[in-house]
């Protein structure tokens, strides 16, 4: 029997309203967007500020209790932070209050741009994109084993295999200065746009306009450059794991952006066959 695909519950604050057909709620898709984003933006309320706070952070979905879980399983979000940061302090204060079993409410956003969608009119221009928002409660990780698990998880999300190819374990000073937050996810959603431009019928029937204005998609993707050795590096050759990551990572993001541009075209061809 096929594995049942899990979805996050649709809450009023997490349901995609505008262009709802682009909304996605499956755990695997949302977790993939989050785990492949180089930066996450974490929003929370600060009691000493009239405005919500938002911070760029590094994070990764995972499960300390079930390390072999895949992206389609129920996972926590681990966030890496400095021990005395405002978010860490607020989470620490919450853990000492009556809300200890809940944690600090946070919202986390991740986004990727896959293409510039150039249409006949400015109003019809768009992006091909993948975005996700998670809602949950953050708690400070105090268990040393779980903290090390999260630190390894986050380090390897930057460059796979980097944790094992560096000085480990962290020393006492490093462990003391670094904090990890575990966010228990309550719900989340994604919004995805792919394909070619969509213009109004009147513009599509204007032959002069069609002859004058180029339309289509410019794929967008982040590439990794050639590794540059540091001033005290004594390793002659770039390690194989790093070379492989740069090569495969660049190929993957290029392929994803190009595929997003023609997704609807390819689907139409399949449907017509």
Automatic annotation (TrEMBL):
Which Gene3D superfamilies does the record associate with it?
Answer: Electron Transport, Fmn-binding Protein, Chain A
Matching entries from InterPro entries are given as: Pyridox_Oxase-rel, Split_barrel_FMN-bd
Q: Specify the superkingdom.
A: Eukaryota
* Listed name of the protein: Flavin-nucleotide-binding protein
Organism source for this protein? Podospora appendiculata
């Amino acid at each position: 029997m096929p594995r049942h695909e899990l979805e996050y519950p649709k809450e009023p604050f997490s349901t995609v309203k505008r262009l709802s057909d682009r909304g996605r709620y499956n755990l695997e898709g949302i977790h993939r967007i989050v785990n492949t984003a180089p930066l996450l933006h974490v929003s929370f309320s600060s009691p000493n500020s009239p405005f919500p706070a938002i911070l760029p952070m590094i994070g990764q979905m995972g499960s300390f209790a079930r390390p072999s879980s895949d992206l389609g399983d129920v996972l926590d979000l681990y966030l890496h932070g400095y021990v005395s940061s405002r978010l860490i302090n607020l989470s620490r204060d919450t853990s000492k209050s009556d809300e200890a079993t809940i944690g600090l409410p946070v919202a986390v956003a991740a986004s990727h741009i896959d293409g510039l969608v150039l249409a006949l009119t400015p109003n019809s221009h768009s992006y091909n994109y993948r975005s996700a928002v998670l809602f949950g409660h953050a708690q400070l990780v105090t268990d040393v084993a779980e903290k090390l698990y999260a630190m390894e998880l986050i380090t390897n999300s930057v460059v796979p295999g980097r944790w094992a190819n560096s000085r480990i374990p962290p020393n006492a000073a490093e462990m003391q200065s670094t904090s990890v937050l575990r966010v228990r996810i309550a719900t989340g959603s994604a919004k995805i746009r792919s394909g070619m431009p969509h213009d109004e019928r009147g513009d599509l029937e204007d032959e002069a306009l069609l002859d004058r204005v180029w339309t289509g998609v410019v794929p967008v993707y982040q590439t990794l450059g050639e590794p540059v050795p540091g001033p005290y590096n004594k390793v002659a050759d770039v390690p194989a794991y790093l070379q492989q990551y740069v090569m495969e990572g660049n190929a993957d993001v290029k392929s994803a952006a190009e595929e997003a541009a023609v997704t609807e075209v390819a689907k139409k061809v399949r449907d017509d066959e």
